[in-house]
Amino acid sequence: MKQAQHTHVPIAARLIERTDLSEDTTLFRIAPEERALAELSSFVPGQFVQLSVPGAGEIPISPADLPAPDGTLELCVRRVGHVTELLHKQRPGAKLGIRGPFGSGFPLREMAGRPVLLLAGGLGIAPLRSLLMHLLRQRNRYGEITLMYGAKQPRLMLFREELTALAAEGGMRLYLTVDFAPETAEGNHSCAIGLLPDLLKGFRFDAATTYAAVCGPPPLYRCLVADLERAGVAAERILLSLERRMRCGVGRCCHCGLGQKLCCVDGPVFRAGELKGIPEAL
Amino acid sequence: MEKTKTFLKKSRLNQFLETLRIFGELHGPTVSESGVYCFSPLHEPAQLQLDYRRTQIPPKKYLLPFREEILHYASGTYREGHSGAGDLVLFGVHSCDLEGIAYLDRVFLADPADPGYSTRRSHLTLVGTSCEPDDFCFCPEGRESSSCDLFLAASQDGFHLSSHSARGAALLSGAAHLLTKGPPPPRRPSGTCLTPQDPQLRFSENPLWHKFASTCVSCGACSVCCPTCYCFDVREYASLSGGALRIREWDNCLFASHGEVAGANFRPDRLERLRYRFLHKYCGFTPLQGVNSCVGCGRCKEVCPVDIDLRELTAPEPEER
Ligand SMILES: Cc1cc2nc3c(=O)[nH]c(=O)nc-3n(C[C@H](O)[C@H](O)[C@H](O)COP(=O)(O)OP(=O)(O)OC[C@H]3O[C@@H](n4cnc5c(N)ncnc54)[C@H](O)[C@@H]3O)c2cc1C
Ligand code: SF4
Ligand code: SF4
Ligand code: FES
C-alpha cells in the first residue's frame, strides 16, 4: 500500500528561481526534498503535480518540463486567484510543498515513430512544453514535430524566444499566431494574426498517422477537435489535456468529474474518442 | 449447543447495550428536542429510538466529519491532521446505511487509503438492526446487510443476533450470558421497495429532467443527507503565527460553483447538475463505474423542499406497468 503521505502530506520543496514570462505568468523553478525525487522521476509529460503554497492552499500544475537532472522542476503558473496570487509573491528560498505526479500522461510509447502536432492556446503551452522538450530530446524516436501556438497578443506569448531558437535548430516546425496585434513595435514580430483553427486550416500533414496534442482554454477544444477530425485525424489520436477544479488529486473529492470519469485519475490527458457522449467534457 | 444461543430477549436489551460499551462509546438513533432523528451518544438506554425510520444525517458523519483538519503547517513542514478517532459502537444502523458505509469503504479504503477515514473506520464497530420500510424506502426487498460486525433482526419478543466479523464474534461472546436459544428469525417484511432499473437508459434525454430542473432550488439537501455522497472541498487557512491549517469539508455538486474552472463552468445549469448527481449515484464513477451507490434510504425524497423524486426516472414507465 502506498504511504498515506501520498494522499495528503506534501513533501517540502524550495523555490530556487523565478523568471517572469509575462505580466501575469511566471516560471518557477523548485527543488523538492530528496524523498520526492524518486516519484517525480517517473513523471510523464501531461501528468500534473499538486503544489502547496503554505497558508493559501494547493493547486494542480502541469510541470513545464521533465525534472532536470538535479531534480528541480519548472512550473509555469499564471496568477489568477487566491493560491496563485500568493505563489507569485514568493521569493527564492520560500518554502512550498509538492505531491505527485498524478494522472495520465501522453501515450509516449504509442506516439513513437509518428508525426506529432502540438496545438497550444494561451497557457496551454505549459503542459505541452514538457511534451515538446521530451520529443526534441528523443528527436529520432518521433516523426515530424509541429507546434502551433496561439496567444491573445504578442506580449502574452510565453517562451517565444526559446521556441523560436528551438525551431531554428531544425528539430521542429513552429507556427505562432496572435488573436490581434496592437499597432506598436511589439506587434511587429514574425507571427500570424488569427486564431489557432485558422492556422490549422492551411496546414498540410499526414492526418492518417499524426498524433495531435491539444491544450488551451475550454472553448478552443470543441472547434479544434472538429477540425482535426475533419482533416482525417482519428479521435483516438487526438489527445486533449483537460482542466478541472481539483482538490485531492487522487480521485476522492469528485471535484474534477466529467461524466463517469474523473479528470485527476482518468486524465488530465484524454483521447477525444473517450470523451464522445460526455456533454460536459468539452 | 452454544452456537445456537443467539437470541436476545427484549427485556435484556438494556443489559446488552451495557456490554457494548466495553467496545467503545455507544451511539445510536435518538430523537432531538426538535423532533429530528439523529445518531448521537446513548447516555442511557431510554434515549434509544429503535423504531425510527431514518435519521436526517446518515452515519457518514462518523467517518467523514462535516469539517476535518487534514493537515497543519508549522516550521516549514506539513503534518497529518488529527483524526480524532476513539473507539465507537454505532448501534441500530439499518441495512441501507450499512450498505452506504460499505460503499464509502470502497472509495476511501482503496489504495492509497485515506488516512483519516481509515483510522476512524478501524475504530468503528457497527451493529445493524432490521427495519420496517415506509413510503420513501426503496431498497431491494428483504435486504439484510452483512456489512457490519453484528446484526440484530427483530422478531416478536426479541432479536436474532448474527455476527459478520471477528469483532462481531467478540461482541457475541461478550454478551453470551444474556443470550438464549430462540425461534428462527422471521422473514423481513416486504414493503413498497422498488429496485432502480436501467438508469443509464433513462439518463440522457428524458423530459423528466426538465420538469425536475424547473423546480429544483439547488439547495443541495439531497446530497447532504445522502449516505453515499462524499465529495469534499479543501481549504487552507493561514494563522498569525505563520502556520496554517488545511481542512476539508462536505461539498455539493448541486451548487453552481462545483463545475467552475477559469473562464468556464462545465455544469452551469440545474438540469446538468441534477443529471450529474444522478449519473454518479446510479451509474458510478471511476473506479466504481457501474456500481449503483444509491442504497434506497429515501432521505433525498423526504428532505427535498420541492418534492423531487428521482425514482420517477427509474420507475417503470406507465405503459410498462
Ligand atoms: C491538470 C491541471 C494542470 C494545470 N496546469 C497549470 C499550469 O501549468 N499553469 C497554470 O498556471 N495553471 C495550471 N492549471 C490551473 C491552475 O490549477 C489554476 O489556475 C489554479 O488552481 C487557480 O488557483 P487559485 O487559488 O489561484 O485560483 P482561485 O482563487 O481558486 O480561482 C481563480 C479562478 O480560477 C479558476 N480555477 C480555480 N481552480 C482551477 C483549476 N484547477 N483549473 C482551472 N481553473 C481553476 C476559478 O474558477 C476562478 O475563475 C492547471 C489545472 C489543472 C487541472
Ligand atoms: S440517492 Fe437518496 S435514496 Fe439513494 S442513498 Fe442517496 S439519499 Fe438515499
Ligand atoms: S433537495 Fe430537491 S431542491 Fe434541493 S437540490 Fe436536491 S433536488 Fe434540488
Ligand atoms: S481532484 Fe479530487 S477527485 Fe479529482
From TrEMBL, chain A:
The FAD-binding FR-type domain, residue ranges = 8-108
Question: What name appears for this protein in its UniProt entry?
Answer: FAD/NAD(P)-binding protein
Pfam families, sorted: DHODB_Fe-S_bind, FAD_binding_6, NAD_binding_1
Q: Where would you find the membrane-spanning parts of this chain?
A: none
Alphabetized InterPro entries for the sequence: Cbr1-like_FAD-bd_dom, Cyt_c3_hydrogenase_gsu, Dihydroorotate_DH_Fe-S-bd, FAD-bd_FR_type, OxRdtase_FAD/NAD-bd, PyrK_electron_transfer
Automatic annotation (TrEMBL), chain B:
Its protein name is 4Fe-4S dicluster domain-containing protein
**Pfam families from the UniProt entry:** Fer4_22 (PF17179)
Q: Does the keyword Iron-sulfur apply?
A: yes
In this chain the 4Fe-4S ferredoxin-type domain maps to 205-237, 285-313
User: Where does the UniProt annotation place the signal sequence?
Assistant: none
Traced from the root, the source organism's taxonomic lineage reads: Bacteria, Pseudomonadati, Thermodesulfobacteriota, Desulfuromonadia, Geobacterales
Is Metal-binding found in the keyword set? yes
Listed PROSITE patterns: 4FE4S_FER_1, 4FE4S_FER_2
Q: Which UniProt keywords apply?
A: Iron, Iron-sulfur, Metal-binding
Origin, by domain of life?
Bacteria
